[in-house]
Amino acid sequence: MQTYPGRDPLAEALAGEITVRKFRVMLEHLPPANPVARELDSAWSQSEWLLWHIDSRVASLHAAFSSALRAKGAAPVEPKFLDTPKSRADPAQKARIEQKHEAERADLMSVLARPDPR
What is the top-level taxon of the source organism (predicted)? Predict the structure, then answer.
């Protein structure tokens, strides 16, 4: 975590030098484009996600407007959305990611379940 130069919050949390709450707060207040957010969410930054949402809204509005003005008996227009990194992931990759997250959760819970060293 290079956001906190001269410190290693993970090592401090595991050694009991800082509380789990303080560690959680440090993680929550990392900048949006940090490696933790990219690993948990996707390779897209916050601005890329905002642009995708804008494009999706415009596509929905275009489809609704086109459907309202279509000829009688014509099929309604369906919006065409851009792919996201999550929609492009294959099922095997999604399963691997889920297994990885489950293993990380189990490791974290085992650390949190340790008795207080004090």
Answer: Bacteria
Place of tokens 């459907």: 67
pTM of model > 0.85? no
* pLDDT tens-digit map of 4-40: 777 888 888 888 898 888 888 887 777 766 666 666 6
Token digits of residue 73: 């008996």
- Distance, CA of 9 to CA of 44 (rounded, Å): 25
What is d(CA 72, CA 1) in angstroms, rounded to the nearest whole number?
A: 60
How far is residue 56's CA from residue 60's CA, in Å, rounded to a whole number? 6
CA distances from 74 to 57, 67, 68, 81 (A): 23, 9, 11, 21
**C-alpha distances in Å from residue 43, one per residue of 2, 39, 40, 52:** 18, 7, 9, 13
The residue extents of the domains of the chain are 45-83
